[in-house]
Design a protein that fits this description.
- It comes from Pandoraea faecigallinarum.
- Belongs to the drug/metabolite transporter (DMT) superfamily. Small multidrug resistance (SMR) (TC 2.A.7.1) family. Gdx/SugE subfamily.
- InterPro entries: EmrE-like (IPR037185), Small_drug/metabolite_transptr (IPR000390), Small_multidrug_res (IPR045324).
- This is Guanidinium exporter.
- The protein is flat.
- The protein has one domain.
- Helix 1 runs antiparallel to helix 2, helix 1 crosses helix 3 and helix 3 packs antiparallel against helix 4.
- It contains four helices and no strands.
- The protein is an all-alpha fold and 104 residues long.
- 82% of the residues lie in helices and 0% in strands.
Length: 104
Amino acid sequence: MAWIYLMLAGVLEVLWAFTMKQSAGFTKPLPSLVTFVTMAASFGLLSVSMKTLPLGTAYSIWTGIGAVGAFVVGIVMLGEIVSVARIAAAALIVSGLVLMKLSS
């Protein structure tokens, strides 16, 4: 279950990052509220996963999911630029996540 909680925490991290962007510096109430709720839920699930997973593994995977997820959401939903260097960077992050999971 710890891995499921960690994956959900990572997905919620992407969601709160996206809604934080949409909140325009916390000036829009609904995106701001969604940001705070999903942020709390993400931290809560991360905390539960850390009961059994090593700190380094859990935190690395959580931030990796957030980084790559935000990268993809930025491209798909916000029209951010796609470049070979950015794709290579995301691929390196994913490679690190896979290696982290395999070493746990």
